[in-house]
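Customer ticket, subject: "Can you confirm the structure for K-box domain-containing protein?"

Message body: Hello, I'm evaluating your service for our small team and ran a test protein. I'd like someone to confirm that this is what the system normally returns, since I don't have a reference to compare against.
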Amino acid sequence: SWYQEVSKLKAKFESLQRSQRHLLGEDLGPLSVKELQQLERQLESALSQARQRKTQIMLDQMEELRKKERHLGEINKQLKAKLEAEGASFRAIQGSWESEAGIGGNAFSMHPSQSSAMDCEPTLQIGYHHLVQPEAALPRSSGGENNFMLGWVL
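Agent reply: Thanks for trying us out. I re-ran your input and got the following:
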């Protein structure tokens, strides 16, 4: 009984190896036309299943990307609304600063180029920076002084 079981398993193993070689296109010479047609149908069926699986995976990935796109769109809308709200409050504060500067001659007034820059993209601007050419900022001396800070002093 044990010997018969081993013989059956050995025959099954050899059959599977032969079938694998046929599916890989090896040892096709001894096959009849009918066997070749059956092998062709098996290969076409396997190819069709592989294509269907690939298509399903791609459709699933596309759906996940669409979900991610919708989620990011919602986050973008929220951030845009928050930015607009903060921009409105900034413009209100800026308006009060400008009105106070007009009354009291406050030194915190905004330069026109800074005001227009605030309407576009949020940036960090500290103080009033006027572009000064390094040559025009301070007269150069012929001595061995360090001119590292040229252009900083107005």
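A couple of notes from the result: The mean pLDDT is 79. The radius of gyration is 40 Å. Feel free to reply with more questions.
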